[in-house]
Design goal:
The protein contains 11 helices and 2 strands. The longest helix is centred in the middle third of the chain and has 22 residues, at 90-111. By secondary structure, the protein is mainly α. It has 2 domains: 5-85, Orthogonal Bundle (Arc Repressor Mutant, subunit A); 90-230, Four Helix Bundle (Hemerythrin (Met), subunit A). A hairpin with a 3-residue loop joins strand 1 (75-78) and strand 2 (82-85). Helix 5 crosses helix 7, helix 5 packs antiparallel against helix 10 (205-216) and helix 5 (90-111) packs across helix 11 (219-230). The two termini are 32 Å apart. Strands 1-2 form a two-stranded antiparallel ribbon. 72% of the residues lie in helices and 3% in strands. The protein has helices at 5-14, 20-37, 48-55, 59-71, 90-111, 117-136, 139-157, 160-174, 183-201, 205-216, 219-230; strands at residues 75-78, 82-85.
Length: 234
């Protein structure tokens, strides 16, 4: 969530050496929030002096936050031209879809025996919340249960490597304001989630992985919607 200047100023004064990571994380969240709101669109520059003055912070936590954003592909650091918000090209999206697909298929294969009735209920709850949000035209409300559905696989796998891979991808794909909302695409995702849930309940691992691989995270299957949402100028 965005932070008020006053709060960051207080953190600077109160956070001694060991807590500098807390301030860095809050600066990171502030910059991500600015990207999500469209205040820092792709191609925009991050002027460090301006950000430091606005937030009343030193450059150290800002540099640390920017390095984290660079590692996630959200910003580009160039010696002569400074720091800019990275654009998201269509081939980037293809690669990110393929990467998250591979991770989820491996996770599902390794954790399938762990699913029980409590997990079925959670998956069904997330699916219901997604549909309700779509009916309200609330993309933000849709996004949260969508990712909670997928996060359950990571949590069950207790796989730190998978989380380190998937979390930045989530930020990269949905960290910028989506220019348009495509109801049919979101409804397709709901149907796919419901198919995955049904396969899990029926203990049909092959079918669950098939839906993930051939539909949900298949770039070619989703490409027309991806182009419509991310590249309206086309």
């Amino acid at each position: 969530m965005p932070m008020e200047k006053r709060n960051l100023g207080q953190n600077k004064m109160k956070l001694p050496g060991g807590n500098v990571d807390v301030l860095r994380d809050r600066v990171y969240e502030y910059l991500r929030s600015e990207m999500e709101k469209g205040n820092l669109p792709p191609g925009a520059s991050i002027r460090m002096n301006v950000v430091c003055e606005k937030l009343k912070i030193s450059k150290t936590p800002l540099r640390d936050a920017i390095l984290r954003l660079e590692a996630e592909g959200l910003v580009t650091i160039q010696a002569r031209s400074g720091i800019s918000i990275s654009s998201l090209e269509i081939e980037d999206i293809r690669y990110l879809f393929e990467t998250i697909c591979a991770c989820e298929c491996v996770l599902i294969d390794s954790i399938f025996h762990k699913f029980d009735s409590s997990h079925y209920a959670l998956l069904e709850k997330f699916n219901s919340e997604m549909r309700s949000a779509i009916n309200r035209g609330d993309y933000i409300g849709y996004s949260k249960p969508h990712w909670e559905f997928h996060d359950l696989f990571v949590e069950l796998g207790d796989n730190k490597v998978a989380r380190r891979i998937i979390t930045p991808i989530k930020h990269r794909l949905w960290g910028f304001p989506r220019r348009r909302y495509h109801q049919q695409w979101e409804l397709m995702a709901c149907e796919e989630h419901e198919s995955i849930t049904k396969a899990i309940k029926e203990k049909n691992k092959t079918e669950a992985i098939r839906v993930i691989k051939e539909l949900h995270w298949n770039f070619s299957y989703n490409e027309q919607y991806i182009r419509w949402v991310y590249y309206p100028e086309e």
